[in-house]
Amino acid sequence: TFSRGGIVGLVAACGAVGLVALATAGQRWRVLVAAGVLVVVALQIMSWAGTFTDGASSERFGNADTTNRVLIAESDLRLFGSNPIAGVGVGMALYKRDIDLYTSPHTEFTRLPAEHGVLGLAVVGLLVVMCVRIIRGGHGWYRMASVGLLAITIAQMGHSATKIASIPVAF
Question: What whole-number distance in Å separates Cα of residue 165 and Cα of residue 108?
Answer without folding.
Answer: 14
